[in-house]
Amino acid sequence: MAQGVLEGHPSSDGALILSINGSLDTTSTGQAWRRALQLITEHQPKGLIVDASRLTYCDGAGAALLLELRRRQESRRQPYEIQSLDPAYRALLDLYGRWDAQRPEPLAPADSPVEQIGRATVAVWRDVVVLIAFVGQLSSALASAARRPGLVRWKDALLTAELAGVNALPIIMLLGFLLGLIMAFQSAIPMRQFGADIYVANLIGLSMLRELGPLLTAIILAGRSGSAFAAELGTMKVSEEIDALTTMGLEPVRFLVVPRVIAAVAMTPLLSVFAGLLGLIGGAVVMLSLGFPLVTYIIQVKSAVTVGDLIGGLSKSFVFGIVVAAIGCLRGLQTKSGAGAVGESTTRAVVSGLVLITVVDGIFAVVFYCLGI
Amino acid sequence: MVRREFNHQVPIITVRHFTAGYDGHVLLRDLSFDIYPGEVFVILGGSGCGKSTLLKHMIGLYQPLKGSIHIEGKDIVTAQGQQRLGILARIGVMYQQGALFGSMTLLENVRLPLEEYTDLPGEAIDRIALMKLQLVGLGPAAYKLPDEISGGMRKRAAIARAMALDPPILFLDEPSAGLDPITSAELDQLIIGLATHLNITFVVVTHELPSIEAIADRVIMLDKRTQGIIAEGRPQELRDHSKNLWVRQFFNRQVEAVG
C-alpha cells in the first residue's frame, strides 16, 4: 500500500501519534479520515497527538478532521494535542472551532403511519372543500360574465381556443381514426363467427359518438391543456404575477380562469365531433375491407345512432371541458413556491382531471339510464 | 478601514482582450485586467453595462467572442473535459438569487458538491458542510429549506455552498441587491472576514456604492457607451483623484447621496 497522508504509531506512554505528511485538502482528507478512525479503533489509545510538522497545506476539510479528532477525544475526556502546527492553520482551526460546541436542532422525526393517514385524510377533505369553494367562485364569475360579456377577456379566450382546440385537432383526428379502426377490426373477427359482422357498424357508431369520442377528447384535453393551464398559472403564481393581479383588484378567477374555461367549453364538443367522425371513418375502412359497401355501413350506422346519442355525447363533452379546464386552473392557482412546485401542480392537474372525467362519466351513465336515453 | 497589501506579482485571474456580446451585437470590447490572490475585486457599473455578462464569461458559462480568461494560469475559454472540471473545482459562485436547490435543506445543499467531488466519508461531509454553514452564521438553520429563510440568509447559504470545496476564488453576483442596509452590511463583513481569514479571492459584481466602499480592494468600472473599462483602481482614489470627471462625479455624488 502506498504511503498515505496520515500514518500512526504508538508512543511510549500509551498515546497514539498521528503524523501528517503532505496536504490535507478536499481530495486527500477522505483517505486520511478513514485511516485515522481505523488507527484509533485498532489502538484504543489513551491520548492522541497529531504531528503536523510536515503538513504542507490544510483547508476546511483538513480543519474538519482535526476538529473531529478533538471532539472525539474531549467526549472521552482524553488528552489531545496538535504539535508543530503552522500558525496560519492554527488560526483556521480557531475560526472553524469557534462554533464546535453548538449543534443545530435536528429535524423532528418522521410521522408515524397513523399520523400520516390522518394528515392525508385531512388533506383530502381540505381539497374537497377548496374544490367546492372554487366551483362556487367559478360559477359566480361565469354568471357575471354571462351578464356582462364585455368583461370577459375575449382575446385570451380566443388564443386559448387556438392552443387547446385548433392545435389539438391533428392528434384528436389521428387517435379517433385509429381507435375506430382498431375497435372495428378487433370486434369484426369474433362477430363474424356469428354472422353478425354488419353490427360492427352499430358498435362503432354508438361507442364513438356516445362514449369514446367525448372520453378520448377529454383525456387528450387533460393531458395537453389541463397541464398547460396548471403550468402557466403555476409559473405566474411563483413569479408573484397572481399576487400582482389581486392587488390591482383584478380577480384571478375572472381574469385568468374564465377565458380558459370558456375556450375549453367551446372547443371540447367540437373536438369530440371530430373524434367521433374520424372513428366512424376508421370503422368504414375496416367494413369496406370486409366487403361491405359504404352505403350499407352508413345506413346501418344511421339506424343504430339516434340524435339523442349525439346530443348525449356532446353534453358530456361540454361538462368534460369545464371540469378539465377548471381543475387545471385551480391546480395552477394552488401552486406553492419553489422549483418543484410547478411540476407538482401539473401532475396534480392531469391526475385530478382524469379522476374527475371518470366520475363525471359515471354520473352521466346513471343519468342517461334513468332518463332512458 | 485598514487596507491590506497584496502581492501584485502573480495574478490569479488574467483577462486579456476580452470581447463579448450576443447575436452579433457587441456588449464589451477588448477588456484586459488582472486580479491578484486574496483581494476583493469589484466589477462596477450601471445597469445593463455588462457586469453580470462579464462574470458569467469568467465562470465559463458563456464563450466570449474574442480573448482569453486565465484562472490560475489555465484558460477557461478553451479548456475541455477534465481540465475544465479542474478549473471549475477551483472557483465557487454565488448567484444573484442564491440558486439554492429548493427541495434540499441548507445542509444538503452544501453537502452536494462534497458528495459529488470527494471520497470523504458521510460523517466528514456532514461535519464540513455544517462548519461552512456555521462560518456564514447559519449553523442553527442547517435543517431548514431555502423557502423557510430570508433573502439575506439565502445569499449567505449560497456563499457556504460555493465554499464547500474550499475554492481559492469566489465569484459573487450582486450580493447586496435586494437586501436591507443592515443585512447588506453583515454580508459585507462576512466577505471581508472570509477574505482576511481564509485568504479567498473575491470577484464581486455590484452597483451598490456603500458596499463597494466597505469591501473593495480594487475596482474596475465598466461603461455602456465605450463598452469597456473607464476606470480601474482603489475606490477612494477613483473618488478623489480620477482623471475622468464622470467617474469622480459618480463616486462623489452617490457617496454624498447615501452617506
Poorly predicted regions of chain B: 255-259
Taking the alpha carbons of the first and last residues of chain A, their distance comes to: 85 Å
Q: Work out the strand percent of chain B.
A: 15-25%
Distance between the termini of chain B: 16 Å
Q: Give the overall average pLDDT of chain B.
A: 83
Give the SSE order of chain A as H and E letters.
EEHEHEHHHHHHHHHH
Measured by DSSP, the beta-strand proportion of chain A falls in 5-15%
Q: Give the class of chain A from helix and strand content and strand pairing.
A: alpha/beta
Structure class of chain B: alpha/beta
Mean pLDDT of chain A: 89
Number of helices of chain A: 12
Note the quaternary state here. heterodimer
- What is the CA-atom radius of gyration of chain A, in angstroms? 35 Å
How many domains of chain A, as an integer? 2
Radius of gyration of chain B: 18 Å
Helix and strand topology:
The complex is a heterodimer of chains A (373) and B (259).
Chain A: E1 6-10, E2 16-24, H1 29-43, E3 48-58, H2 60-75, E4 80-83, H3 87-97, H4 113-147, H5 154-164, H6 169-193, H7 200-238, H8 241-247, H9 252-289, H10 294-304, H11 307-333, H12 339-371
Parallel strand pairs in A: 2-3, 3-4
Antiparallel strand pairs in A: 1-2
Helix pairs in contact in A: 2-3, 4-9, 5-9, 6-7, 6-9, 7-9, 7-10, 7-11, 7-12, 9-11, 11-12
Chain B: E1 13-22, E2 25-35, E3 40-44, H1 51-58, E4 66-71, E5 74-75, H2 81-88, E6 91-94, H3 106-117, H4 122-135, H5 151-162, E7 169-173, H6 181-198, E8 201-206, H7 209-215, E9 218-223, E10 228-233, H8 235-241, H9 245-258
Parallel strand pairs in B: 3-8, 3-9, 6-7, 7-8
Antiparallel strand pairs in B: 1-2, 1-4, 4-5, 9-10
